[in-house]
Amino acid sequence: MPAVHRPGPGRWSREADKIAWTDPATGLGCIIRRERNGGHLSGYVGVGPDHTLFGVEWQAIPASLDIEVHGGISYAAACDASGPEEISVCHVPRGTSPGSGGHIWWVGFECNHITDLVPDRTNGHL
């Protein structure tokens, strides 16, 4: 598995690089993933073709939708089926083929803001 954990000790040492699940209330795929640049965490939700946000670039998401998320939305793209499942922004449910995630549009946010714990940050916030 391609590791993205930051070197050295820290609270992140016991965390997984990626956790994926399906939200039981909405049926939407969810991912928490460690980013390679900075070692911080990011969160994603996958929406299907029938969802308002499907295919919408993150910069074009209408303010009228009044979506509030930590630091704002900073990602929107199709399933990254070419990347390694262990760290990609793609959630392939058990029992399905790896290519089946291609009809999901992932919308996400990053936790690398001024008050966030960012492993590569050396300004005393660790």
How would you describe this protein?
The protein is globular. The two termini are 26 Å apart. The protein has one domain (11-110). It contains no helices and 5 strands. By secondary structure, it is mainly beta. It has strands at residues 18-22, 29-34, 41-47, 75-78, 105-110. The protein has a 5-stranded antiparallel β-sheet with strand order 1-2-3-5-4, with no helix packed on it.
What's the short story on this structure?
The chain is mainly beta and 126 residues long. It has strands at residues 18-22, 29-34, 41-47, 75-78, 105-110. It has a five-stranded antiparallel beta sheet, with no helix packed on it.
Radius of gyration: 15 Å
Q: Strand content of the residues, in percent?
A: 15-25%
**Can you give the helix content as a percent range?**
under 10%
Largest sheet: 5 strands, antiparallel
- Mean pLDDT across all residues, rounded? 79
- For the record, give the distance between the C-alpha atoms at the N and C termini, rounded to a whole number: 26 Å
Total helical elements: 0
Low-confidence regions: none
For the largest sheet, list the strands in their spatial order. Answer: 1-2-3-5-4
Looking at the structure, what is the overall shape?
Answer: globular
Helix-strand topology string:
EEEEE
Based on helices, strands and strand pairing, what is the structural class? mainly beta
Number of separate domains: 1
Let me know the number of strands: 5
